[in-house]
Known about the structure:
Elements: E1 3-8, H1 12-20, E2 28-34, H2 37-47, E3 51-55, H3 63-73, E4 78-83, H4 88-97, E5 101-104, H5 109-120, E6 125-126, H6 131-137, H7 149-155, H8 161-171, H9 176-183, H10 187-200, H11 206-215
Parallel strand pairs: 1-2, 1-3, 3-4, 4-5, 5-6
Helix pairs in contact: 2-3, 3-4, 8-10, 8-11, 9-10
Amino acid sequence: MNIKILLVEDQKLMRIGIKSLFNDYPEMEVIGEAINGKEAIEKAKLIKPDIVLMDIGLPDISGISATKQILEHNNNIKVIILTAHINEDELNSALTAGANAYVIKDICTDYLMYVIRMVRDGAMWIDPHVVPFIRDKNNGIIPSRQISRSTFKQNHSNLTQREYEVLKLVVDGQSNSEIAQTLTISEHTAKAHVCNIIQKLVVDDRTQAAVKALKEGLV
């Protein structure tokens, strides 16, 4: 069954760009678009999407306010907040309003699609770039998930230290060519490391490797 999506974004070029991302994902379908919060609320009532991709900065009411009103009418809808910047107050408000995910707009496409699937299945997700920011602001209320090198080797001795470094870059959303540039290695070597990581973590692709790394506190 296709995942039905309502896309809420006031900027036309951004809306076209986001919609085009789904061309390679036939199991997902953008069934409606809205350019402001009020239109989003009305369209959500009318077309009953599975997922709302909600821009947080809209010209009339905020994406957070629109999220709250959409969920008050139909709490079966899942809302993914899209934002261009990290803001602790907005994150807290979004989660309070009932949003299921908080995503920075520079997320890579495969990762976004994985988040959509997870949210559709009932999970919540916060962009990993936001976690250190919240941790710093909350004076350790959110505990650090960084682990020492010795602990890492004890728990994941099948990964080399270089593969651990590559894994951190995969979590950051870097491509093979970007990893190669960061670590001053060839792109072929970077690809080989990523393939080894995928095999050793027993996952299907780099996105699942990143998610597993975050869930298990590897990065």
